[in-house]
Amino acid sequence: MRRVGLVVNPIAGMGGRVGLKGTDNKVEEARHRGAEPRSPDRAREALEHLKNQPELVALYTYGGAMGEDESVAAGFSPTVVGAPEREETTAADTRTAVRRFVEEGVDLILFVGGDGTAVDVAETLEALDDETPILGIPGGVKVYSSVFAVTPRAAGRIATAFDRTEVREVNDIDEDAYRGGDVNTELKALATVPVGDEVQSSKQIGGGTVESLAAAVAAEIREDDATYVLGPGSTVDAVKTELGIDGSPLGVDVWRDGNVLARDAGEAAIVEALGERNVIVVSPIGGQGFIFGRGNDQISPPIIRRSEIEVVASKQKLSDIGVLRVDTGDPELDESLRGWQRVRVGKFERQLLKVV
């Protein structure tokens, strides 16, 4: 029986839907904008797989919203190794939970959060000189590190099935710089991680020229009367530049008929700006292949359902990633998006790539 420790960062990912690009030092602002906790649902998705195989897992967790609540709701009777002292949890609580898991001798630490939570977990293990494997259930806005499963359900599958581990990187970025349009990743720690096809790669930054692609996409947008939801990233930012708009390179902008209807918009502002016909323009994350669910949570399931999808990318990026991925938080929508997707790679050329 595998002993699994689960710790949840209950505020991770709250800034995504409301356009904050992260929650570090922004929890109150996220709440003010109407953000809802995302991590509990992500934890329960992973636990759904584990509870179907109770003979394989002994679950350990931290108290209250940091894992106990979700574990009990999923049908487990977990061993609770401690609890936060205050209702407003902190990184110190995550680090304490990890130390308690090590004392209990768990075989795997599952954590729900983003890169900041990954840093807390990995640095704590490094300080203890401990090599307990870790695996992230993606719940944050920033998921750059190569220690996360591609979806919460995949994390549940990997937790019971892995038989090998390898050392991988934990990276993080400065969120204030990120909000200003700069992406500077920093290696924070190394961690032991299960080996599996459903463990994501590190995000690659930039790569390849996209000028002709961006010019062609922008030309078509100008001639169209649809409302365009322009996602984050360098490829789509090149499209925004071609359109001559002062867009947000790492945010979501809404454009129609020569006008920017919303800049660096959260979910509510995007919904308000939508028209009769809407087109989402996104580019897959380099090295990972995600078109939804990483860094663009503002483009929520209700928005996706009301829109056509235009995926754009350089040929080099497509050859590096091999497949496209989605993790919208809505399993039915994810299933409907799976299959072959046309990706625009040049002025006229398109390639078929599978969404898995």
Give the structure's gist in a few sentences:
The chain is of the alpha/beta class and 356 residues long.
Q: Helix fraction?
A: 25-40%
Oligomeric state, counting identical vs distinct chains: single chain
How far is the N terminus from the C terminus? Answer: 30 Å
Tally of separate helices: 13
Which regions contain 5 or more consecutive residues with pLDDT less than 50?
none
Order of helices and strands: EHHEHEHEHEHEHEHEHEEHEEHEHEHEE
Large-scale geometry? elongated
Number of E strands: 16
Largest sheet: 7 strands, mixed
Instruction: Tell me the strand percentage band.
Output: 15-25%
Strand arrangement, major sheet: 10-9-8-11-13-15-16
Please give the radius of gyration in angstroms.
20 Å
